[in-house]
Amino acid sequence: MCHDAAFLIVADGRGILHCNDARLTAAQARRAKHLAGGRLDLMALQTSGASWHPICYEYPPEEMAKVSMAKRISKLRAAQRLVRQTEPELAVPFAGPPCFLDAEVSHLNWVLDQRDGAFCDPEVSTAWLREHLPKQRWDYFLPGDAVDLDTGDITRDPVSAEFSFADAGAYLDRYAADRAEAIAGVLAGYPEPGPDLFDRFKAHFTHLGGLSDYFNRHIAMIVRFEITGPNGGVWDVDFAPGGATVSTASPDVRPHYRITTAGRWLDTVLTGRMAWEDLLISFRLSLYRDPDVYNDYLVGLLKHANAPALQAVEEYETGRDESERITVACDGARYDIPRYCPHAGEDLSVGAVVRDGQIHCLAHNFAFDLATGECLNARAANLTSRRVS
Questions:
Q1: Are residues 32 and 16 in contact, defined by beta-carbon separation less than 8 angstroms?
Q2: Is residue 314 part of a domain?
Q3: Mind listing the pLDDT tens digit for each residue in 39-98?
Q4: Which of 243, 246, 245 has its CA nearest to residue 210?
Q5: CB contact burial 150-172 (16+ within 10 A = b; e otherwise)
Q6: Residue 353's domain spans which residues?
Q7: 265 and 333 housed in the same domain
Q8: Nearest to 207 by CA among 237, 249, 228
Q9: Would you say 260 and 286 are in contact if contact means Cβ atoms under 8 Å apart?
Q10: What would the mean pLDDT of 230-248 be, rounded to a whole number?
């Protein structure tokens, strides 16, 4: 069974579910356990997502701390919920934080010193999950460690045992120095772009704007690109019904999103060497949004960049079955809502937190106002919530 990069291995009467960079719903996790014969000997969970938010965003320090903690707790609660649903013999968190060797992005290694940041290491993840689900057996592994699924015994690798997450910064400095020549060789393969960069940028986004009017209507904003380095510039893409208009930025126009990156990294996308998602996950850019609301359709358009895939998303969102509904209680009121999240189908009966007049889907941390059904922190479909007597 596979979902994203999750995989289930059943052999010699043992079952392992490895949720690598995958957001399994509770129903999918339970089905995996069923396929394994009703028992999971080991379940590995990602507790520090591969995400450029919030680390690449231009938040002031106080806001960065607030957003980071909210993201961390949401991710850990999602892992807790999956393990509670499946009850594996051993649950193994694996996590971040992301680490960088190239000097261009090494400043982002500040997350290594943030023990309360969004991207926690496996040691921190395991401690939190042990505290919040104490009857479950938890542990984490380092390279070379081994587990005997028959006995449950863990053998620690003697070399990895010398590593400490508290020393991760110094470790990376030594590693970067050792790999400096190889890093320089890779970077040399990405030359600065030529003077036709804007023309190719314009053609690229004109093409993207013609792929799906459904996505254009839901993006419905101006995205500003600040491209640094030779032949760069400041360029606006206005997504609207009918397509995308590309122009040199005007000081009189206030964009909703701003994306800053170097011309040579933009060039890799325009030439097809790299997809937009690869550039985003490389962290070789910074982002700002005003208002600070995630636009899933913009990211979806950049990630898919494919008319059939965008059409499939449109058909899912416009044709989903909302006949199966549940009732949730909050602050003395009761609300009738669809059982499944309108964003990606998470089962809200087990995969959500209800508080302060909102329901938070733990799959992607989308928050919906129970009174109106409006998504509060992202551009997403309405929850179609109704208050009941």
A1: no
A2: no
A3: 999 999 989 877 899 999 999 989 998 999 988 998 899 899 899 999 999 999 988 788
A4: 243
A5: eeeeeeeeeeeeeeebeebeeeb
A6: 320-388
A7: no
A8: 237
A9: yes
A10: 97
